[in-house]
Amino acid sequence: MSKELIRLSNCVMSYDDEIVLDHIDLSIQDKEFLTLLGPSGCGKTTTLRIIGGFLTPTSGDVLFDGHRINDVPPHKRMVNTVFQRYALFPHLNVFENVAFGLRMGQTVVEQEGGSEIRRKVKIPEAEIHQRVMEMLEIVNLRGFEKRPVTALSGGQQQRVAIARALVNRPKVLLLDEPLGALDMRLRKDMQQELKRIQQEMEITFIYVTHDQEEALAMSDTVVVMDGGRIQQVGSPEDIYNEPRNAFVADFIGESNIIDGVMRADCVVEIFNRRFQCLDKGFEKDEPVDVVIRPEDVDIVSEAEGQLKGTVTSVTFKGVHYDTIVDFYGFKWLIQTTDFCPEGSRIGIKIDPDGFHVMKKSQYSGMFGDYSSYSEEYDEINDPTLLDEEEEDAADEE
Amino acid sequence: MKNKRSLFAIPYVVWMALFVVIPIVIMLVYSLTTAASDAGEGLHLTFENFTGMFDYVTVFGRSFWLAIIATVVCLLIGYPVSYLMAKEGPGFQRVAMALIMLPMWINFLLRTYAWMSILENNGLLNQLFQKIGLISLYNHITGSDVEYFQMIRTPGAVVLGMVYNYLPFMILPIYSVLCKMDNSLIEAAQDLGAGAGEVFRRVTLPLSLPGVLSGVTMVFVPSVSTFAISRLLGGGTSMMLGDLIENQFLGGAYNPHLGAAISMVMMVIVLICMLVMNHFGEGEEQAVML
């Protein structure tokens, strides 16, 4: 897990005056499942296309196995892509779609007089057949080989796209929002499936998505991007528990983000009250952003509470209630199994490990207040809205 | 809702019946009858018109042959142009489109007359050849003594006229198919290891076949039945089906029954050609729809 396979070094991508990628540095390890996560227009697809060879960075280097590959065209890279809308060849059936890469021949590297010579060699029909069938087996599409791809469902097309990209045994598989067009249930299944395939075939997956849940569920490493910059790189746990700034905290999961002041190591002050926390290493009296996850808040009676507020809305979510509570004009989201009726006065308690303190950043004050919660939630839950945005972003590129 | 909307189709249906179906029926009747004999007692049912058709095999052959050549030339010129237009930026697209469409705004006959004056024995081209000494060079090399190149009144001139007049009908459908093609398909092919040649051969070309098919149809059908081009540029040396038919209706050989019969046979042959072609293109066509 420790060998570096791909490195993006100081990569900048700009069209005219618009900077799409702003000095990206990223190291991708062999055999890892890495996810580029961010809202549309954050530069994640651009990053993927640079690795795939469809875009050349304006400046900076792309290294593959230590070699600079900026100018290597896509058909000569040991990288294959699962495209956003599959891009299956409509004039070929399932078998021929998967066999496409094999029919292009295999690159053989020969040592001759100290220099490497790459040659394309035709693969015998029997081997093509065997490898295609093997791939169809892996993606559970055995028996579909004669079907026209246009007669398949979305999920099946998705599998063909994966098989087609994997049949060449690439070192890296790039996936550009591959599950975006599938319904919820199929998505969950395919997430599992992709993870299984990745582990079975032991290749690096670089996965692009705007769905944070998907990113957390599948990845070894999550790269959170916004505005053409990498905001944070880390394991899903790190990203969730130790977000580096307000953007990451807000984008990954639900967060209440409150202005605070660090009074001493392990003492943070919010709403003019001091709380015990576990964070250290800040200046004395440094202004900070404090993240409190909705599930880390306990509701208690008003008298016992460290903070006191009024419930302004309650929504039943199945496992828990989403309760919006007004504390001194700042609306918090609290997720709890206890039902508190609207308008009731409550108190809350937060354990020291419920606080996460972050340095102030350009994102401070932009996120974390739930006064417009319901609208925001509608937006998140409206898939057509997201899809349209994505398409716009893709078109612009 | 559906019934109400179908009301809008009525004018078209009436139009079709009046000006397509009924004329075809009249033609059919004509082709199966012959003019009344001297006694003047109406029409006689006969197959004579069709059995007499064999006299015109050479005209049939020439018509189809020249139309095929014109179609192939149109395809060879039209495909690369369409491809370039689809690949290049919108600036090139606009200019190319204007150049292709511009001649179409000029009357068809006018355009063909213009070619006449260009190809004439003492026309523009021959004058140019004379000026630059091409003709004397030719005479010098071959030892002949010509004053001009014979261009007009040759089958070549007819093909040129067809290509010139019908090329846009080849370019436009191919261009529109290539334009609509999903660029990610090409990227996918590159991604899977296909170089530029392979991408074209295995993806672009097969997916553009529907456009090629409709282009071929739109060039071939008017080419095979043209009469103005062959008369003006062919000058009577290469009579084609169109001329033959026109002659039966309006010309000296007045015999509308035979003309109708020739028209029917030509229609059937063209129909068969189209059916065969569409059969080959069927799979792709459906695929592209999706």
If you had to describe this structure to a student in words, what would you say it looks like?
The complex is a heterodimer of chains A (397) and B (290). Chain A has 397 residues and is of the alpha+beta class. Chain A folds into three domains: 1-78 and 170-241, Rossmann fold; 89-153, no CATH class; 255-396, OB fold (Dihydrolipoamide Acetyltransferase, E2P), CATH 2.40.50. Chain A has helices at residues 44-52, 94-103, 125-138, 154-166, 184-201, 212-218, 236-241, 246-251, 373-381, 383-396, and strands at 4-15, 18-29, 33-37, 59-64, 67-68, 79-82, 106-112, 115-121, 172-176, 204-209, 221-226, 229-234, 256-264, 267-270, 273-276, 286-292, 297-300, 307-316, 321-327, 330-336, 345-350, 355-359. In chain A, helix 2 runs parallel beside helix 4 and helix 3 packs across helix 4 (154-166). The two termini of chain A are 33 Å apart. Chain B is globular and about 70 Å long. Chain B has a two-stranded antiparallel ribbon. Chain B is mainly alpha-helical and 290 residues long. The A-B interface holds A 52-54, 73-76, 79-81, 83-85, 87-91, 100-101, 103-105, 107, 148, 150, 164-165, 168 and B 182, 184-185, 187-195, 198, 202-203, 206-207, 283-284, 286-288, 290.
